[in-house]
Amino acid sequence: MPLEGRAASRRGSRRSRAAFLVVVSVALFASMVVAGAGASGDRRLTVFSVATGLQYINTADDRARGKVNNPLDSTASKLAPKSSGRQGPFAGDVAVYALRLYRDAAVKHPLGTAVYTCFFNYDRHALCQAYYKFRAGGTIVGSGPVDFKSSSFTIVVSGGTSTYLGARGQASAVPARGNAQRVDFELIG
After folding, report:
1. Which domain holds residue 180?
2. What whole-number percentage of the chain has pLDDT above 90?
3. Considering its fold, how many domains does the chain have in total?
4. Sign of the CA dihedral running 28, 29, 33, 36
5. In a domain, 125, yes or no
6. Is residue 162 part of a domain?
7. Which end of the chain has the least Cβ crowding within 10 Å, N or C?
8. Distances from the Cα of 9 to the Cα of 21, 104, 132, angstroms
9. Predicted confidence (pLDDT) per residue in 72-94, tens digit
10. Which of 10-19, 125-134, 153-162 has the lowest mean pLDDT?
11. Does a structural domain hold residue 4?
12. How far apart are CA 86 and CA 33, in angstroms?
């Protein structure tokens, strides 16, 4: 290749590299702007909940029936967990909690209601689904594992309605004054 052709080729190569760097820089800047815009949509919300009702579904009769009418052989029956004389909840039991939500720790200003539906497995652990319905409009939906031997828990917020449509994040509950629980929502979107 003649000397002039090589120089022109290098200039073209430099131009394409410079154009590539400009495109990459613009893309990085745009992604930072979009990420910053998402961060401004983050919301924190604190409510206080007080339990107002509990419906407990004890499946002891099903467990007893399963011991007698079991399609598995006796070897599989030996694998069943031992209860060690402990009172429930046992695997398969369900608890439905009704709660009132308040905006203040003194639980004077109502904000809405909530329902937790908890499906128990072993050792007082459950998978709970939570629905927080606010008077001002909108519901926050969450779910996650809860250890009933502990007085606090954190669940994942997976959506909602109206004001909270598409919300995601987490809800952390800790004991508060009296019989109340403080629930801190950290929401994205």
Report:
1. 46-60+88-188
2. 55
3. 1
4. positive
5. yes
6. yes
7. N
8. 18, 71, 65
9. 555 555 555 555 556 778 888 99
10. 10-19
11. no
12. 56
Q: For the chain, state the CA radius of gyration.
A: 28
Of 182, 158, 152, nearest in space to 170 by CA: 158
pLDDT in tens, 15-34: 555 444 444 343 333 333 33
CATH number at 100 reads 2.40.480.10
Query: What single string gives the DSSP state of each residue in the chain?
Result: --HHHHHHHHHHHHHHHHHHHHHHHHHHHHHHHHHHHHHHT-EEEEEEEEEEEEEEE--HHHHHHHHHS-SS-HHHHTTSPP-TT--S--TT-EEEEEEEEESSTT--SEEEEEEEEEEE-STTEEEEEEEEEETTS-EEEEEEEEETTSS-EEEEEEEESGGGTT-EEEEEEEE-STT-EEEEEEEE-
Say which residue, 68 or 112, is predicted with more confidence.
112
Give the pair of three-digit tokens for residue 118: 């908890």
Is 35 inside any structural domain?
A: no
Model pTM score: 0.68
